[in-house]
Amino acid sequence: MSESERRAHRPSARDRTAGGPIPASCAWRETDPVGRRRFADLGPLHLEAGGKLPEVRMAYETWGTLSARADNAVLVLHALTGDSHVTGDAEPGHPTAGWWSDMIGPGRPIDTDHYYVVAPNVLGGCQGSTGPSSDAPNGTPWGSRFPYVTVRDQVAAERELADRLGVGTWALVVGASMGGHRALEWAAGEPDRVAAVAAIATSAQSTADQIAWAHAQIGAIRADPRYRGGDYYDAAAGDGPHVGLGIARQIAHTTYRSARELDERFGRLPQGGENPLGGGGRFAVQSYLDHHANKLARRFDANSYVVLTESMNTHDIGRDRGGVESALASITARTLAVAVDSDRLFLPTQSERIAAGAPSGTYRLLHSDYGHDGFLIDFDQLGPIIAEFLGNRAYLTR
Ligand SMILES: CC(=O)SCCNC(=O)CCNC(=O)[C@H](O)C(C)(C)COP(=O)(O)OP(=O)(O)OC[C@H]1O[C@@H](n2cnc3c(N)ncnc32)[C@H](O)[C@@H]1OP(=O)(O)O
Ligand SMILES: N[C@@H](CCO)C(=O)O
Q1: What task does this protein carry out (predicted)?
Q2: Catalytic hit among 25, 177, 287, 342
Q3: Alpha carbon of 149 to those of 47, 174, 309, 357: distances in Å?
Q4: Is 367 designated active site?
Q5: Residue 287, ligand 1, Cβ within 6 A
Q6: Is 150 exposed, middle or buried (0-12, 13-18, 19+ CB in 10 A)?
Q7: Is residue 234 flagged as an active site residue?
């Protein structure tokens, strides 16, 4: 069996139900299973679309040491279902290693022997920062009552966190995908506080295509009867909206990978001993998507998925700033825009636009078969690009 066949076939069909009943919500809430997460209580936050959150808590992790001049701080902003655990090995309570361990750490492109790295969990998420699964003032989860938050609101919360950490100007703000939205929003909205920005596989404003994919994902969650309009937090395991959330992940995950990769990797292979002819069995690629659906439903909250996806839909650094080109032109930070050539969700032209519009913009392209997820896989290319942008000669000549 070839490597591609081996990858395509694992694990077995039994994976579809692996792990037992799925909890109604897998929000981490106020817990800190890894033991290194910290929390900052920021008080009330007035929201761009109206209303306010009376109490905002931000969960975050840090690595390295802030210099006496506070000029070595790097803000790392995660994507839709990411979290603050950007680097480190797998450990109890966090079964996966940091999602950017190859990029951040001693001797890595973002070298924590030199930089003070801060990674917050996004506002509206479900990994310790205030979100729909957090308790509202009446002591029960916000659920359907959670207000609309924008990318700008998320950055406003991160700005408050920066104030509390004693960071005036970030040496670098870096993010990919949804994290890139926030990185660009930081650069356009807080030019005095960002010396350099790296926006990876992202866009300055959401496109109709991205909103269209998101629409189907949100629809899948809302159509799940177990979603209960967003108020499902007291449901028993197995009785939460994991079906809708899983379908949303399957739609999204397909857009995160390239058609070429899926075709070359899975082809028309059936999954294990299953027979798709007649409708009973699955193709391997269907099993693969089932696997990713199952995994996400176990680690993420459906309401957070909706809240964050909606915030991505209205992402537009040009809003109330005279349009995207005007907002890009106002960026004073050194700007790096990185695209993945096979990304069918965040097209390279959107990164080219960022680099062309920012006064000191640089554009770099990753050559990858993996599509949008290339920023989570192709570190042999992304590492040197970021190291070069930071002038990390030790990494480049290692
Ligand atoms: C900043 C952030 O975004 S942080 C969040 C990033 N992490 C995630 O999104 C978690 C979801 N995972 C992913 O998106 C991807 O796994 C990545 C991008 C992290 C890594 O990509 P890859 O290394 O190419 O992993 P890939 O997409 O092939 O998935 C591998 C999994 O699919 C499973 N798989 C492969 N083929 C099949 C199949 N035919 N049937 C069922 N499962 C299958 C593998 O067993 C493996 O399972 P495991 O992850 O539980 O060990
Ligand atoms: N796999 C990433 C892709 C989104 O950019 C995530 O789940 O956040």
Answers
A1: Transfers an acetyl group from acetyl-CoA to L-homoserine, forming acetyl-L-homoserine.
A2: 177
A3: 7, 21, 10, 27
A4: no
A5: yes
A6: buried
A7: no
Question: Average pLDDT of 316-344?
Answer: 98
> pLDDT tens digits for 205-258?
999 999 999 999 999 999 999 999 999 999 999 999 999 999 999 999 999 999
- ipTM, two decimals, is 0.95
Average pLDDT over residues 143-169: 98
Please give the single-letter amino acid code of residue 3: E
State if residue 177 touches ligand 2 by the CB under 6 angstroms criterion: yes
Question: Regarding the domain delimited by 3-207+317-396, which CATH topology (the fold level of the hierarchy) does it fall under?
Answer: Rossmann fold (3.40.50)
Distances (CA, A) of 131 to 74, 114, 304, 379, 383: 24, 33, 7, 31, 32
| Torsion angle of C-alpha atoms 67, 69, 71, 75, degrees rounded to 10 | 60
pLDDT per residue as tens digits for the range 354-378: 999 999 999 999 999 999 999 999 9
Give the atom of ligand 1 at the shortest distance from the alpha carbon of 78: 1
The protein residue with its alpha carbon nearest to ligand 1, atom 33, reads 288
